[in-house]
Design brief:
Strand content: 5-15%
Shape: flat
Number of domains: 4
Largest sheet: 2 strands, antiparallel
Order of helices and strands: EEHHHEEEEHHHHHHHH
Distance between the termini: 66 Å
Strand order of the largest sheet: 1-2
Length: about 300
Amino acid sequence: MYSIYFMDLEPENEFISFSKLESYIEKYPEDAEKWLEFIKIPEIKHDYRRNEVDQDILETQTNVIQKETNSPIDNFNDGCLYCKKSWESTESVPTTTLICGHRFHTLCYMYEHYSNDTPLCIIEGCNIDTWSYVREIYRRKKEKKKRVENILLTTYRKRADFKLDLLELKKYISNFNASYRRMYGLVLNGRRDLLHKHLHSLHHLQEDMNDSVNTIQSSEESMNYKLSINKYRKHAAYIFRKYHVSFRDLYNAGLIKSSWQTRFILERHRKFSFNKLNIRLYPGGKKIKEPLATGTAESDSESESED
């Protein structure tokens, strides 16, 4: 039998069963929402705003994760196996005990979990995944909360006024579904008529667009572009192997300058997209201007490359 903790009875540490709670709600259905407020599991609110780092705390905790020590320990009962420091020498440092029972410095465990992306216990022969237990506990609490909330709906099903209101809601949903089907049919008919009216022009447009793309792909500029990419990749890999710095490192340090289009391609290993030719047609859009009257594509690309 499951039991639920009443938040207002915290000093007495009293618990109440689901069956008893259900009888309360059936007896006083008008106060059902109040009952749910008592048994609601409080959600943890995270403050994602960055706070200033306390330098004293930072210095103290930084010393903990240093691996060098004069008398390193080799037993988890004597000290933390991450930093190899004894419990006696780090009495003021917070510690964490995992579900398996092994104890570590809180910062050491979180630092290793962050850097190596593994929640496994490092004690030989243990390898307990703490977060798998945390996920299972959270899942069970979520299921228990959902079961408690369903008691309210179970109680409402027995009320005549709730049945009438639910029937009215279903009627509105049915009306919406019928209206949606008619609206969707109208959209399909509009699309069909539009394609039928301009089908000949669309075929010519598609053929000309395919020819333009094929011309671009087989052009000398396209071959030179691919060659320049390959040369960059080879030399960037050479620099990374020799100096262990990437394109982003050099750009952030101000050693190289480039536009965001160049960074998007070189830094993220993306390809230059030309297959769509930047032609888009949307309902309600403005008429397409004459491109020859606004300038050449070369001048447009120069203006876009300015960072």
